Amino acid sequence: MRICESDSEPQACFLLARHLEKSNMLSEAIHFYAKAQYYSQAIKIAINNELDGEIMSLSMASPK
User: Fold this and answer.
1) d(C-alpha 53, C-alpha 51), whole Å
2) For residues 52 and 37, is the Cβ–Cβ distance under 8 A?
3) Cβ-count burial 9-25 (b if 16+ within 10 Å, e if not)
4) pTM for the complete prediction?
5) pLDDT tens digits, 4-33
6) Which of 17, 22, 47, 55 is most buried, with most CB under 10 Å away?
7) Alpha carbon distance 50, 3 (integer Å)
8) Among 46, 23, 49, 51, which Cα is nearest to 33's?
9) Under a CB-based contact definition with an 8 Å cutoff, are residues 53 and 34 in contact?
10) In this model, does residue 59 exceed pLDDT 90?
């Protein structure tokens, strides 16, 4: 996690996010999916878990 926070390599952030999602660490997974610019995956997790604040935040940060 420290490596992905300091060095925003998108592929590393994506792999970490997938691992975190499988480990049921959903808020961390959403954070790293967004950092990897996989907004649709992050939004999907947020919708499935009714995290309305995250949905709004991610939709504002994602490209059109």
Assistant:
1) 6
2) no
3) eeeebbebbbebbeeee
4) 0.87
5) 888 778 999 999 999 999 999 999 999 999
6) 17
7) 29
8) 46
9) no
10) no
60, amino acid identity: M
Strands (E), 1-64: none
Cβ proximity of 6 and 25 under 8 Å: no
* Radius of gyration of the chain measured on its C-alpha atoms: 11
53, burial (CB in 10 Å: exposed 0-12, middle 13-18, buried 19+): exposed
- Cα-Cα-Cα-Cα torsion 36, 32, 19, 59, nearest 10 degrees, comes to -80
- Residue with token string 């808020």: 27
